Amino acid sequence: MARYQLLLLAGDGIGPEVMTEVKRLLAFYAANGVADFDIEEDLVGGAAYDAHQMAITDATMAKAHAADAVIFGAVGGPKWDKVPFESRPEAGLLRLRKELGLFANIRPAIVYPALADASSLKREAVEGLDIVILRELTGGVYFGEPKTITDLGNGQKRAVDTQVYDTYEIERIARVGFELARRRRNKLTSMEKRNVMKTGVLWHQIVEELHKREYKDVALEHMLADAGGMQLVRWPKQFDVIVTDNLFGDMLSDVAAMLTGSLGMLPSASLGEIDPRTKRRKAMYEPVHGSASDIAGKGMANPIAMLASFGMALRYSFNMAKSADQLDAAIAATLAKGLRTADIKSEGAKVVSTAEMGAAIVGQLQQLAA
Ligand code: IPM
Ligand code: MG
Fold first, then answer.
1. What pLDDT does 240 receive?
2. 294 catalytic per annotation
3. 313, 283 in Cβ contact below 8 A?
């Protein structure tokens, strides 16, 4: 049986609750001889700040570097609103992304048949939806320097964030986009704002050149990111893979999440470059939703985005596509049976807790595996 090293970073808010359901899944895999995972757990975000006055320690970073995959819950919450900017909970997540080199963030938005009515969009607009937002994750305005607030001395302050992209950063994310599209419906939509931003001009040019050079077989389309946002809520099924920068990707993936009915449904995989020597790549798997402090500790959180994120780990880090398919099928079947967490509740459905949803999915998996 394959043995893999996992680092579980549950974080804050509902993070620990949804991570408990991952542990339930891991126990199932171990008990059924599917795979044996070596599990380490550590602190990140506000939890790490409370213990160490920083959002992630060097020791935890070293564990993340050593792991085959990092499984991440969520960070942040009002409790840490006043901590220094450098040690705010989110800084832990950003350090992981940057130092592990996780430039490619794959955020699939899939509408499960049972949930077509949970979306705020009309059923016909979202039924059968299956698209991917591919977000650049280690560049752009999230990390660009300077990033400062200066006192101008005249009662005014000036805040600066810097949007910066180099050729190689655009090219490598575009390449992931073309490759993903090839294995799907063969269409890539690149979104930027070249009508306003220099980074958009370069982004458009690099994507265009790469397409001409290596991916002529993929249908490529360009959209200004604002128009893209509009199209995403007008008729999302026109898209297959959307590739975009860090900030636009952050926003567009929240929009895409709501197409599926709830932020609690969207998983994600953050991948680094493939090491030519070991053929391995660093990876982190995290739900798109945040820490949702308002419902934390109540057993109400939807564990599906977290479990589906682990499904992406099976697919992208452990070469266990069959197990990943089974997990997706178990989630779909559980929803089809009418079980819903509060965020996706509907007429006639049974509202269940985080633990009940997790247990039902693992139970379904047991049936599928048998
Ligand atoms: C996300 C989140 C993060 C981001 C926050 C928590 C820093 O919104 O993963 O989408 O902005 O990238
Ligand atoms: Mg976000």
1. 98
2. no
3. yes
